[in-house]
Amino acid sequence: MNDTAQGAQPRHADTQTARDILSIFFLKKQVFVLTFFSVILAALAVSLLSPPIYKTSAKLLVKPQIESPILFDADAARLVGMENRVDVQFLNTIVQLLKMPSVAERVVDKLRLAKDDTQEARQAAANNLLDSIEAEPLSMANIIEITIKGDNPSHVVDILNTYIDEFIAYHISINQSLKGRLDFFNTQTQRFKQRYKALNRKFAEASRKLQVIDPQLQADKELRILRELEIRRSELTAKLKALHTRVRQLEGALQQLRETGQLSGVSTDLLTAFPALVEMQKSITQMLINIQRARNDFRPDSKPVRDAETQYQNMRRQINLQMGSIIEAARDLAVSREKEISELTQRINEVKQRAAKLRTNTIALQRLQLEVRLAKENYELYASKREKARINLEKNKARFANIKVADRPHQPTAPWFPQKGKLMALAVAVGLFLAIGMAVAAYAMDPHVWTPHDLIARTDMRFLGSLDHLPQAVEASPSGGKQHG
Known about the structure:
Elements: H1 3-8, H2 10-14, H3 18-27, H4 29-49, E1 54-62, E2 66-67, E3 81-82, H5 88-98, H6 101-111, H7 119-132, E4 133-137, E5 143-150, H8 153-173, H9 179-210, H10 215-260, H11 268-273, H12 276-297, H13 303-398, E6 403-407, H14 420-445, H15 452-458, H16 471-476
Antiparallel strand pairs: 1-5, 1-6, 2-3, 4-5
Helix pairs in contact: 4-14, 6-7, 6-8, 9-13, 10-13, 12-13
């Protein structure tokens, strides 16, 4: 080699040409191909063998917090004020609260995500849930994005929806006040409601058992019956007294008939009550007149006088029998009237007893009715107070309900991982870069000299020229390969 050859190619000896760089891939093509297809096969195995993981997200809008004035009426409409912006500190506070174990435990308990009811299982399920939840505020916005990953698309949506709802409830609960008042009024309302129902049942049962429906109406009915019975008894008593008087008069007339043989001096009332006495009186009077005529016209022992006396005696006996029958009938009627009066007296006593019992039962029922009315009034009072407390609590909640769901999670239609198309495209790009790097690394670690640049870089020798253009030099080479010198 001479100086002419050295001067002819000075730049070729000092720089690596594109041909030298391209020759690397031909020299190390096995490493390149092996590396490239290894990456492709690894990506294919991951996409085919990895279980699908689904991902969904929701967005929470954080509004400026409502501020209440220092003084306000708890039972009146509240005046509120509102800040104009949400600072970063408040957004970070919301993010930290989103990752609180208390929220995760609420979701675990509500959806029954724990394997059993032990505290360890609940805590492990809550930790797993927190690991799958991510929350971060979006830049330049009052929005926090919450994402969750899982192996079931519908399940992750349910979990995230429940997680959002439980977090909002948790956020309100740790900030709200006046909750104790609502609990108290709830307790009192339930207490008096149960008491009112129990007293109502007791009142209905007592009314049925005591047979008292309307005490006033039943009392008026009993008084009316008692009044009618007493009037009837008074009438019967008066008739009985009159009947006794007539019996005595009849007995006196009968005694007079027996003693004197006449029916004189009988009262008009008695004659009106017993019309037969009028005929008897006329008959006995006529008989006496006939006897007197016979005695005046005939001798005392004559037959007309004896016949007149015989007729008179027969008439007396008949009148005596009739008077006895009348007296007996009057006595029987008196006994019947006395029995009827006794029955009326017994019925009057029964009515009086029922009236007294009704008054006693009415007092008991009125006491029960008073207790029912008081229980109802207390129930309505506490129900009204509870409603006012609930309204005030809702107003109080409004101060802290400044977190709204801007976008609910949607059920993913395709898995978040592995995404086969993107994974394969990424594998091709990574495989190319990695294959190129591995080929370059293998070429750099190879001690053989392949190009003039390698000779200069790896030895202290200067490149003067090459015999690549001489075919006979190649043929004269003992190894039949390329030689550089």
